[in-house]
Request: fold
Amino acid sequence: MEQFSNILTLGLLLGGIYALVSVGLNLIFGVIRIINFAQGEFVMLGMYGAYACYSFLGIDPYVALFLVVPVLGLLGMAVYWFIMRPLQNESMMQVFASFGLLLVLQNAVLGITGGLTYSVNTPLSNITYGLGSIQISLSRLIVLIAAAVVALVLGVFLTRTTFGQAIRAVAQDRKGAQLMGINVERTFMWSFAIGTGLAGLAGVLLTPIFTMSPQIGGNFIMAAFAVVVLGGLGSVLGAFIGGFVVGLTEAIGGYYVDPVLKNAILFSVFIVVLLVKPSGLLGHAGAEEVGLREQH
Amino acid sequence: MKLPTAIQRATFSTPREGWLGSVPRSASLLGKHIIRYTAALAIMGGVSAAVMAQGNPIKIGVVTPNAGGMAILGDDLARNYELAADQINAKGGIRGRKIQVIRGDATNAQEAIAAVEKLVGRDKVDVVAGTIASFISIAASEAALNYNVLYWETNSLAKNLTERGLPNFVRSGPSSDHFAQVAVQGTLDVLVKKIGKAPKDLKVWVEHEDSNYGTSIAEEQRKLFEKAGATVMTSGHSLKAIDLTDSVLRAKKFAPDVYVTAGYVVDTNLLLRTAREQTFKPSAIILVGVGDTNETLSALGADYLNGIIVSSYPRAQVNPKFGPGAMDLAKAYEAKFKVPPVATSGTNGYVGMLMLARAIDAAGGSTAYKDVVAAAKKLDVPVGTYETGYGMKLDDNGQNTRAMPILSQWQDGKVVVVYPSEAMLSGTELRPLGRK
Reply:
């Protein structure tokens, strides 16, 4: 029983990581319907940005996020405007372009760093709290809290602000939104920028936990897609809960069955959920088709 | 053209018997010219052939990943090959012939084949050597065989490289089995005393990343520990796992005395960080193949690492009796490349190149793979000959049986050799293993 509460805690903390990494992807995939394969690379850039601030400017990663996140948001804006927007009528080409971007970003970082891995080891990154036999690291707790805060803020933004409602309108019906006077291109650009900025935030907050390598983005991306689709395309709450579903499945599968099989277990669960509810746990019925329906 | 006087006299002068034999006086002028020039050419040809044989270098193509994720290690290995070539040439080369190292670049199997084609086809190398990674070695060695060229492996670890039955393949360095063996042997010989248990009472958790590399090391360790009577559990994890807490908690439940893991830097660092987080404290932690560089030090800090054991290629800071010239080699590297040696894998490559030169010499200077492999298999070079403490004795598969890795221990932020005892620098000792 004691061990189970340990695994449960592990699953929740891991869920926090997945939820935070996926929230940006959810916005991009859910709203603009772009399968951004490079999303993991923005997480990676967030990590390297935090590392650069730490080693060259002596700034703690938690402070560095105020610099790194806006920069990655701007980068996202540029990526959307110059790469994705010209391909907006060719969704397959957008997929390929994002894959090309993945390779460019990975290899650029590889070229600069020469393949050496980096780690940030601050006093904060070593703090752990003991709750009975359960050990909770401060860095993971911060990620969990951040995931909850981001989900909340994003939820409020999308429902209570004009621009947020514009994003939702564009996600539901691009043509209709345009007819209502919403600038679709600019909405997409800002959505992409928020998405990549959030990926950068995830990267910064994960820096105290992981040793970074140029390829680390790839480790996150498959699980992130699973979270987004499982949770329900475009649903902020869905992606948040999806993160915990994935985290708990991995933790329970990894501990009680075999760590080597946890991915297989996760994707089995993923398939079963989708067979029962194709739009995901909290997605609206038909949401899964929106991306495939012709958008004129 | 002014001919040497002797030839002039022999062909044009009056005496009928010159050093070329009798020349009919009635031979036409053209005939005399022909004889004269042919003689000159024959002499010059003979002389220059002798000169050419002397000056023609032995070309060794080296396949290393000089770009991509392994660039740092690959480039370091190629530099060590070049350094070895310098040292060999400074001593007169191989039977008077200098050796020339020509680089080929490969980061995967396809590029390995292309690199060998370039080296053999375009650069006309006599021998191919390499390389940091087994998946590159497999392809490069098979490509070399297509050209009937020797493939001399210095570094790649996969066991099956020497079990394929490839006739042109020799491995001068250790295999993954040796890395496994030294970890087990070191535990049974010295670590048990610090742990305070007999081998048959030991509980060992063998963790490994789940590709062929980690799995083969884990298998060998499991076999050897079980042979010694220990209770063993093995467990794999993905190199790309976002979280390894499940693996650590499973190990913690088993409560091992010895926790040994074989993987790469990223997953090893995550395992150690998680172990610290989860207050998992086995009596001994052994890292196989990685964990002895700044990449791990910067992730974990000197305090946590204190006492942790690492199995790796021999390093420069070994006892000079064990590895003669190891420190001088480090200095020579720094003098040539203006930076300190990057990794111990490089030194292993340096020594491998020396062994190749010895094998070619033993083959009478021939670079044909059949000759070199046969000659190499007859060599019996004692342990302690090379800077790494290696000797050279190939088994029937072409695997050097006298190339053993060593064990080192993290001590106050420095990596200190602790096993075998002959390799230890005087004044150093095996310190407490760090966890109780």
Observations:
- The radius of gyration of chain B is 28 Å.
- Confidence is low (pLDDT under 50) at residues 10-23, 49-53 of chain B.
- The longest helix of chain B spans residues 29-55.
